[in-house]
Amino acid sequence: MKKLLLLLFILAVPFFTMAQNNGPFAVLEYYEDDTALEITDASGTPVTDIYYGMELQAGDTIRTKGTVAELRLDPNGSIIKLAQDTVFTIENLQKTDSDSNDFKLAAGKIHAIAARAGFAHYRIKTQSAVAGVRGTDFGVVSIPGSKEEAFVLNGLIDYTKLSTNQTVSVGSGMIADALSDVFKAAAASQEQLKDLVKDVVFTKLDPSKVPGHEPKAEKKQPETKTENGAADNKKAEESKKPTKQEVAKQAKNNTMSAIAKLLKLEIGTVTMNGQTWSKAVIQPTFNLGKLKLSLYLPVIYATDLFDPDDWYKPEGNNEWSFGTDKKFSSSNKVDEWTARAQDFLTDLFLKIRYVEWGKQRDPFFFKIGNLNDMTLGHGLIMKNFANDADFPSIRRVGLNLGIDSGKVGFEAVVNDLADPEIFGGRFYVRPFWKLALGVSSVMDINPAGAADKEAKVPADTRLIAGGADIDLPIFESDALSFILFSDIAGMVPYQNGSFKTAALYDKKTFRNYGWKAGVFGNILFIKYNLEYRYFDGIFQPSLFDANYERMRGVYIKNIDTYLQDPTASPLYNKKTMGIYGEAGFGIKDMFNVKLGYMWPWSEDASFKDLDDELLLKLEILPDTIPVIGLYGSVSYQRTGFIQTIMDKGSANLFDANTVVTGELIYPVAPMLNLAAVFSTSVKTNPNGTIHYVDGTPEIVPSITIETRLGY
To answer: How many CB atoms lie within 10 A of CB 135?
Structure first.
């Protein structure tokens, strides 16, 4: 069975290659300057890797700033030329006879030759009109508020003015302007047509190869000599040859590069739990408009790639068994098949790196997989919660989704669909204008399972936090947003069969709660967040954060100690205040930076007993550093940063309170990179539980050296 699974894994490689190519797409066949070409996906995220032959999907937008571009539709063969300073969106690509190829021209000019094969039809939309097309050589010009013209070189289109729903037929040699005083088709002079197409003549793509536009066979004409003795035909052929720059870029589009791009193959080593493993990982990625999917298909092994017994088993689980392990054998067949089914689903979920649609504050969004940015509301209870801090030694498939209907909305979070233990939710309403009122709750149903066994935390201990929030956008746009907010939250542990409400409210006094208020938003390309925080006792703001999965055992131990005697330590009654500020900015195609810091103070505790917070993120994008071409990223998140610096005798900037990730990438050749990936992770026991030293999770480095194909 293990050999069979290995065989299926190997056979899956061509399957995922073919799966990526299913369905229509547009191919970027030519451009003059990739630095003047901008492509964004359906969610508005810039595409950083632009190359000849890249596949464009529905939802992608192309902006030509000082360059031109040529697209080919696959499989029908239609071609489109974009002039300089054009904004062109692929809204839909035809999949059935009743469907259509829909495009939007926000500004600029295009020249298209539509294939006449089958039932292919097309619609080109501008702000004021739409052109219905079948098998036509035509063009559209859009200068918002000034001109919206459609012209036809060969064929016929239906041109509809949206404000009046009036349609005119535009035939060969004709032109119509939807913004003119009189909407009609008129004959264009040869000079007019020549002027319209002079900047959208195809450079690389051949109009004669578009289905239905092939030239009729003609007799071969003898070569005509020029005064210099060169043949005109030969000269014409020479002019069609690509430049050296085109040849160099086109080399990226060979078969092996395409396969590597699809599969994203990683080959190298990774250090986990102090042991070095070899690995071969395939990560096929699918981008379908707003939907993004990436799989994670690893073989991580000690010495023998072809011996499944030698493969790494995350948390003791053979992730390639899919319920076939002998350990599930039992005399009770119901229990056996239940265990096998559970293992099958667990192993299947582990093959998902992520599935995403949209982003938070969209009308609908969801994320499934290894996630590091799950936030509820403004984050007083849960902010940037991560279930992948110890990836790949520990892998989880989390869920974060939200629906916003305008007046009502909700968000939900689960840390691991295969073994759910942390659940969160937020419900909110907008009673008037844009004001939003919300309530949130997060519950950890098994923090004791992550605690040090010597701590002897009761097994039924639960950690429950709840709160309310207000959200008031003053401005909210791409250029400027200013959103006021305020949150309040508290916690109520559950232990020994009852809720410990005295931890929140006792003797007419509230305790172990927190609140914050501030503003967040953006000013042009700078995103910001500024807030005042206040919290009482053992309440910790943003408790469910990037480090929670590691530290939950320590947190619940401290809470258990508090429940035994709330007066044992003055720290249990301290009142902490602080200012937290965060800013993120970047320069397109060069770098991104994010900085955040929380400075705490208290009237009843010294600074060394308080936890400050530090967030540092830096990303250097490809081609930013000239000549050597190195690029990469680093992220450092830590609580108790200044306190550690002050404690010079035992300073450790990479302990359990820290989450560090980073990578340094060197491009060896197109589509071939060498990468050094580093992070910190908790050391685990053979059964997958956290290994503790003196009551604290032991942290070990995780270092990967790998060759990447397709990045």
So the answer is: 20
